[in-house]
Write the structure tokens for this entry.
Amino acid sequence: MEFRHDIIVVGGGHAGCEAAHAAAEMGARTVLITMDMTKLAQMSCNPAMGGIAKGQIVREIDALGGLSGIVTDRSMIQFRMLNRSKGPAMWSPRAQCDRQKFTMEWRKELEKTEKLNIWQEQAVKVIIEGKKAIGIETIFGNRFLAGAVILTNGTFLNAMMHVGFKRATGGRSGDAASNGLSDQLSQIGFEVERMKTGTSARIDGRSIDFKKMTEQKGDSEERSFSFVKNKRMVEIQKSCFITHTNEKVHEELRKGLEFSPLFKGIIKGRGPRYCPSIEDKIVTFKDKSAHQLFIEPEGTETIEYYVNGFASSLPLEAQINALRKVKGLENVEIFRPGYAIEYDFFQPTQLKNTLETKKIENLYFAGQINGTTGYEEAAAQGLMAGINAVLKSKGKKELILGREESYIGVLIDDLVTKGVDEPYRMFTSRAEYRILLRQDNADERLTGKGFKIGLAGKERIELLEEKRRMIEKVLKFLNEKSVSPTQLNNFLKNLNTAEISQKVKAATIALRPQVRIENLLKEIDGGKELLKEIYQRKDEILESVEIKIKYEGYIVREKVIADKIKRLEKLKIPEDINYSELLSISTEGRQKLEKIKPENIGQAGRISGVSPSDVNILLMYLGR
């Protein structure tokens, strides 16, 4: 049969779910083609969302109108704000989730999204006419035609799983591989490579001695990822537990190395440097006698636990023997072994900043198909691919987020400009303007854009406007209110900070690191009334006010630098430029520029191998 839609999304992982929801929510008739409807946005590895830099991405997805934050809030069983001992640019929310509930909540949301259909079948071919993608053909010969196709195949393309020397085809334990698509695209000229990732054994909670481990509880205050419902308590709190490997564990692991597909060269794909397998750790870090492990619950209605930090492709016997040498796991029983998975991906330098491929029009790639790792990075790409596919189909200007306005912008720019030689993972260190890209202000940065394109709803804009009014009111109060020594010195003395000798503005007191604004307001005439006024959103408002006051100098300075750099981003490079004629540019520079074809001067300057002098020559060529 033949079916017609506006947008086709292939793959029901985190990227595919965000892409399908965004496209349909923006008014496009959309179909999501997946091999298994019961595993939408499945957490294939550890059951958690967020973390360092990743938490900022989830909040940005939410601010634009995506669903990852909302689904996380509904399914979380623990919430922690990481890096609170550091500056606010480093604060990162992280939630432990109920794996099954997370998938169920995603399915609920997608099933109630108007203009979105879900189809369960394997896609095997992109239908291409001329240089345009016009549809998808499935394994049973069904044809889906549309104005745009978004591929979000994750780790499933020609995928192979490894446990020791035992191999099986599959994109995830219990799931088949997706064959056909990467072979077809390779034949028409796409650069296809192999990558590797891995996951840990899942263990039986009844066989764990938690008393021998360190309990790690979640935050006690109300928190959330989504800006829509800003405060919520985790209904059923579940703790994680910390333990460590030791020399006996490492000894058992070394016994299995001769049967390791990783070290015997059977696995050819490159693995993630920042999330290595346990066997990789003991070889790379020979001097370390212990590695930290997190024992993480899989949900509230299960006894299954995930061993974070113990990803492995060693034989089952080696995995079990090593686990049973870990403190607290002496009698552990496992549900399923850890395994490595090898899969095809496409070098992302073959993409535009919109995530549309340069080679085939109306064909978009998003997620691990682009060489990234992590649910959050995948979801962000899916969201942007869905948005841009719809905007282009409507003849509207596509949405490209800058490096100075979002981590999503940093992620996509890194991918399409630099490419990847290992699975790409987001870190705060990758962003030049970290203090501008905080988790608390994602809505201030992006919700206006989400509303303008028709993805973020009216409720989000109203909440944002209310937040801005409240923040402005508190800032105005602190900047205008004078406080005297008699009013405040006892308060300051109790905080072990210098007393004042004359009247000063309350804002100058708020600058002090020892002073919490909420406590300061309680000491000032009119302050308690102001706290009552903002009570419903007090934590959120005061957190933003604290940051704006205490870090104002840093924020202003970084914004000035970002504005200067942004001017280069606006300087477009003609698509038909012939770099081979610009002989003053270095040979490597010409080769890299010709291969990647940057869209603007800012992007050109970030390409590895393109020097500042090469950029200056380009500027002269463009009349600047």
Q: What stands out?
A: The longest strand covers residues 192-199. The two ends are 56 Å apart (CA to CA).
